[in-house]
Here is the input.
Amino acid sequence: MAVVVPIASQNWLITPAVGVPAAAADSGQRPGDSSELWLVVLTGLCSVGFGGDGETLTWISETLRIVPDLHSPLSSVFGGPILAGQTLALNLKMWAPFAAVTGVEANNGFKLTGWRLTPFLPNQDRNFQGIDVDISVELPSIITEVAYSITMVGQISLLGKPERE
Here is the structure.
């Protein structure tokens, strides 16, 4: 089970991945309609605090889950209404996540052994859920920060059903 870590700071960029499709230009579709591909880049820093007191020279491991704010960039370009009970998602076509340890105290040893997208939810398209990062630390060291950069191309979609009044 992954531990969700708080985001200390985040930056984002969103832009069309390709020009507006010809069909969209002819049909009067708005930006953010589901046929358009978007390039989204999320970067940031997470506060971790993993490790600490314990038997010296003992290695411990954990999987961190980094869940950046995706709603802000998506809502900045989405052209339609978002009703109560609905949320925006990015249906991924391509992705390239990266993570690195950027802060350590009492450095006896630490490792970042892998990173990957958080598994997609069942019965949904390939909607972005975050990234999972595997870290290890040799006690009494503490990993204090992990930086991330996630580059994605996908289509914006609405999840959920509108609530009825």
Summary: The chain has one domain: 3-159.
